[in-house]
């Protein structure tokens, strides 16, 4: 059975974007990017909220992104190779391959995807991820904490979910970013 992973880059006060929607302080440097490439390499499917999907499409539609370095080319290739499901009521069409739109988040359908595939899944976008957390579908949390306090904006984690976590690994990067890898402990 595959795992559902939530991966986010957030400020120390847990925002993925500040009140102006800005997240340039969360952009990974080469060291962090190389680490994220290796985390995402084995992933088979990305479940995206429409907003985060729109920030990611450039990895397929804008060749200048991959042209910047071999590391970014590697990431673009990893991203393009994965299947994507975009959750949206408004998006009329997608501009990337291997991508389908779902109009509603159906926890049972995601449970089936986890049961039927060997390769792990990633959920991206806090609004979408909140629904996966509430449905008890998320198995692991990979949180990159940027050395920033931004004071407000879009929270990475839902505020009405309680989770018991087991820390499996942690790492510090030269930029001051810290990686925290947790397994979600299921309590009955
Ligand atoms: N820190 C970083 O590294 C980083 C990276 C990328 C982006 N960001 C920022 O992160 C923020 C993402 O915020 P977010 O939480 O709003 O994004 P999100 O979860 O990616 O997208 C929310 C959208 O997903 C769709 N959706 C959610 N639940 C749905 C459901 N049950 N059924 C159908 N559609 C559903 C809706 O799209 P429709 O409105 O189309 O229906 C909703 O507006 C943005 O500010 C972005 O700029 C940060």
List the helices and strands and how they pair.
Elements: E1 4-11, E2 15-17, H1 30-40, E3 45-49, H2 50-56, H3 58-61, H4 63-66, H5 70-81, E4 83-87, E5 99-102, H6 107-116, E6 121-124, H7 126-134, E7 140-146, E8 154-155, E9 164-172, E10 178-185
Parallel strand pairs: 1-6, 1-7, 3-4, 3-6, 4-5
Antiparallel strand pairs: 2-8, 7-10, 9-10
The chain binds NADP nicotinamide-adenine-dinucleotide phosphate (NAP).
Q: In brief, what are we looking at here?
A:
The protein is α/β, with parallel strands linked by helices and 188 residues long.
Description of the structure:
The protein has 7 helices and 10 strands. It has 188 residues and is an alpha/beta fold. An 8-stranded mixed beta sheet has the order 5-4-3-6-1-7-10-9, with helices on both faces. Strands 2-8 form a two-stranded antiparallel ribbon. The longest helix has 12 residues, at 70-81. It is globular and about 40 Å long. The model has no long low-confidence stretch (mean pLDDT 97).
Intertermini distance = 20 Å
Assign the structural class, choosing from mainly alpha, mainly beta, alpha/beta, alpha+beta, or little secondary structure. alpha/beta
Bound molecules: NADP nicotinamide-adenine-dinucleotide phosphate
Uncertain segments are: none
* SS field, number of helical segments: 7
Order of helices and strands: EEHEHHHHEEHEHEEEE
Helix content: 25-40%
* Largest sheet properties: 8 strands, mixed
Form type = globular
Largest sheet strand order: 5-4-3-6-1-7-10-9
- How much of the residues is beta strand, in percent? 25-35%
């Amino acid at each position: 059975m595959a795992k559902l992973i939530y991966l986010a880059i957030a400020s120390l006060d847990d925002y993925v974007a500040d009140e102006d929607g800005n997240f340039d302080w969360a952009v990974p440097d080469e060291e962090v990017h190389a680490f994220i490439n290796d985390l995402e390499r084995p992933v088979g499917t990305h479940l995206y909220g429409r907003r985060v999907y729109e920030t990611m499409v450039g990895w397929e539609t804008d060749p200048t992104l991959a042209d910047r370095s071999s590391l970014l080319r590697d990431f673009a290739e990893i991203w393009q190779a994965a299947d994507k499901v975009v959750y949206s009521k408004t998006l009329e069409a997608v501009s990337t391959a291997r991508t389908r739109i779902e109009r509603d988040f159906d926890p049972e359908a995601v449970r089936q995807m986890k049961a039927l595939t060997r390769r792990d899944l990633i959920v991206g976008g806090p609004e979408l991820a909140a629904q996966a957390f509430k449905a008890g579908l998320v198995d692991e949390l990979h949180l990159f904490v940027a050395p920033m306090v931004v004071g407000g904006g879009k929270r990475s984690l839902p505020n009405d979910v309680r989770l018991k976590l087991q820390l499996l690994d942690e790492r510090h990067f030269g930029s001051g970013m810290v990686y925290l890898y947790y397994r979600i402990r299921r309590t009955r």
